[in-house]
Design brief:
five-stranded antiparallel sheet, alpha+beta, about 675 residues, single chain
Length: about 675
């Protein structure tokens, strides 16, 4: 039997949760972003479609200011080519001013968001509205794709009875929605709790389509994501359902149904007793809520104050732009099952890496700086400041970070296939085909080109290597680990540092010897990777005597020079491969690792070599070779006309921050 103390605690916590839920989800004045989906298909810059799309998004934003909750439009050119179709829909209880603000934010985000740049179709969800566009007409058609689910991390104690009430209430809400296209409904869970439900369909679909769309959400998506949870929502372009145990929507104009009046004396007697009980209970409830609110507000204020102080101490003026990326430690601990060993997927000098799942369903990779380590603090700050400002499909996505209770944590989008290093040099059975290797080379080149020329910042990575290239579910490469990266001025060609950081085997001669880094030092690292991807061996390893001890680059150059390249291939390239592509890639790699930085191509030139088969490539000069000892790096110049060689040595630093997800799950 449960003790009275436990019942009191349960009663107090229930009231606390109800009030906190209400307080943290009160009606905001600003739209709240939820999710977006962008098509992988792209349109051409400055095309007719881009012009039509820009006009379309402007028309949606303009129409939202006219107190219109739903609007669709088609924009096409004078000759009716490349039309752009789009619509917006605001939640039925949202006031017109907030609807207008939400649509304006959504269209602006679609216009400027790097992730959706040049996508032929996209949909963006806010709590208050949804905006969608495409190059194909989707009006009056139900789309059960590009959806979004979100479930509360807290479950109801009485799951079975709650689920019965939930599905009954949602179906009644859906019945009303199919006619009105928007409806809300309230049901009583117990004496202390109510259930609040909302459903909505876009007005361009008919009654049957709306009910069918909602049926799919209620009977298929909802059980998978939110069964037994205290709240949840399923959002698709044409229909939405949401439920909570607090009133999350604004009250509608329909007056409440009056309670029936009983004339029987027994009923009057019961009502009298009920009123007496209410008079006694209400003050207790109010006091409990007041105490809970004060405790919660004080604790939250103290935690937020500590977090802001830490943010200001670490990032100074940049702290205001990073507030939206801060995560509470409790959320990260819950996502990783309190940093469980079963969730651990990698480690390094920086600390441990864990896989986790946020409550919105997103898989994440969590890099946790070891609290006992003094390494990585500078790199931690550098990586946050850099990646927060960079967005490209070939760069790993930074979701956020945590600075709390002496923890330093980086949170990335999870990349399921681990690192390129693992696929090239690991013991796994699956090896990369030639087409996969060529795709990876192209993707890395595009990512580095973005860093050098197309991002808002000009970035020199300084630690490009296979273990810092992660592969997603389609084996598309994502450049990671920006702790050693440096920002330079847009018109700056090079920089010099006294602290040599990086990984031996991938550092250019001028950087290893003199600390002279530039775009061309990244080009050198890229060239080494290209050759490793094709040959399947590490540049920094010891080689057989027929390599003359000069390393992989020198060996491959000689094979290219005598036209026996095909003997050097990774034996795992078993499929039919393009000999032209393969020889071209080796030649690009050799061009990138030339001793003279000025002789190396830019990444823009490398990308043009890879994408344009008609360009004739120049002949590469013999590369410099670097020999690596435990205490020094020596760089020798090859091929001098006098036959002499010059060498220099310099202590080196190795990037202790780099961590790769070593084993894909």
């Amino acid at each position: 039997m449960v003790s009275n103390t436990k019942l009191h605690i349960f009663f107090f916590l229930t009231l606390f949760i109800i009030f906190v839920s209400f307080a943290t989800n009160s009606y905001a004045d600003d739209p709240r972003f939820l999710y977006q989906v962008c098509s992988k298909y792209r349109f051409i810059s400055n095309s007719t479609y881009q012009t039509n799309l820009h006009t379309l998004l402007s028309s949606l934003s303009s129409q939202a200011t006219q107190n219109t909750q739903f609007f669709n439009n088609t924009v096409t050119s004078k000759n009716h080519s490349e039309p752009a179709y789009g619509l917006y829909k605001c939640r039925g209880d949202v006031p017109s001013s907030l609807c207008s603000s939400c649509v304006e934010n959504a269209t602006q985000s679609l216009s400027t968001n790097t992730e959706c740049s040049f996508s032929v179709a996209a949909v963006i969800y806010y709590d208050e509205c949804m905006v969608r566009y495409s190059n194909h007409s989707f009006f009056s058609t139900v789309t059960l794709a590009a959806g979004y689910v979100l479930a509360s991390p807290t479950n109801m104690s009485n799951k079975e009875s709650f689920n019965r009430l939930l599905y009954e209430t949602l179906n009644k809400t859906a019945d009303e929605t199919s006619v009105k296209k928007f409806a809300t409904r309230e049901a009583k869970i117990n004496i202390f709790q109510n259930l609040y439900c909302l459903a909505q369909c876009t007005p361009d679909i008919d009654e049957r389509q709306c009910r069918s769309c909602l049926d799919g959400l209620i009977n298929s998506d909802l059980p998978r994501c939110c069964a037994g949870a205290q709240g949840g929502q399923v959002v698709y372009p044409n229909c939405v359902i949401r439920f909570e145990i607090y009133p999350f929507y604004r009250s509608l104009t329909t007056p409440p149904t009056p309670a029936p009046v009983s004339s029987a004396k027994t009923a009057e007697s019961k009502n009298g007793r009920s009123r007496t009980a209410i008079i006694v209970v209400i003050p207790i409830v109010v006091l409990a809520i007041v105490f809970a609110t004060c405790f919660y507000c004080l604790k939250r204020k103290a935690r937020k104050s500590r977090a802001n102080i830490l943010l200001q101490e670490n990032f100074g003026q940049e702290s205001t732009t990073l507030e939206g990326l801060q995560f509470d430690l409790a959320i990260i601990a819950a996502a990783t099952n309190n940093f469980s060993h079963d969730n651990k997927i990698g480690k390094g000098g920086f600390g441990q890496v864990y896989k986790g799942t946020l409550r919105d369903g997103r898989d994440i990779a969590v890099k946790r700086l070891s609290t006992s380590s003094t390494q990585g603090s500078t790199e931690f700050k550098n990586e946050i400041l850099l990646i927060a400002k960079l967005q490209h499909r070939n760069l790993v996505a930074l979701i956020g970070f945590c600075l709390e209770e002496q923890e330093k944590i980086l949170i990335y989008g999870y990349v399921p296939n681990g690192s390129l290093d693992y696929y090239l040099f690991g013991n796994q059975e699956q090896k990369l085909s030639w087409s996969e290797r060529y795709k990876i080379i192209e993707g890395i080149a595009l990512g580095v080109l973005y860093l050098h020329e197309y991002s808002r910042l000009k970035v020199i990575h300084r630690d490009l290597k296979p273990s810092n290239i992660l592969l997603d579910e389609r084996l598309s490469p994502k450049i990671s680990d920006f702790g050693m990266a440096r920002i330079v001025n847009i018109d700056q060609d090079r920089g010099i540092t006294k602290r040599i950081v990086g990984t031996y085997g991938y550092m250019s001669p001028e950087y290893a010897m003199l600390g002279d880094f530039s775009e061309k030092s990244d080009v050198f690292s890229f060239g080494v990777m290209v050759i490793e991807i094709i040959i399947g061996k590490r540049n920094a390893e010891s080689y057989e005597s027929n390599h003359d001890g000069k390393g992989l680059l020198s060996y491959v150059w000689r094979q290219w020079h005598v036209e026996t390249l095909l003997t050097t291939l990774d034996p795992y390239i078993k499929e039919k491969y393009s000999q032209i592509e393969l020889i071209k890639c080796i030649q690009i790699g050799l061009l990138c690792v030339q001793e003279n930085p000025n002789a190396r191509p830019t990444m823009a030139r490398v990308v043009s070599y890879l994408t344009n088969h008609s360009i004739k490539l120049p002949s590469p000069q013999e590369p410099a070779y670097l020999s690596y000892g435990m205490d020094q790096i020596s760089v020798a110049q090859q091929g001098s006309s006098s036959g002499q060689s010059a060498s220099s040595s310099k202590p080196y630093s190795v990037n202790n921050m780099s961590i790769s997800i070593s084993i894909p799950r």
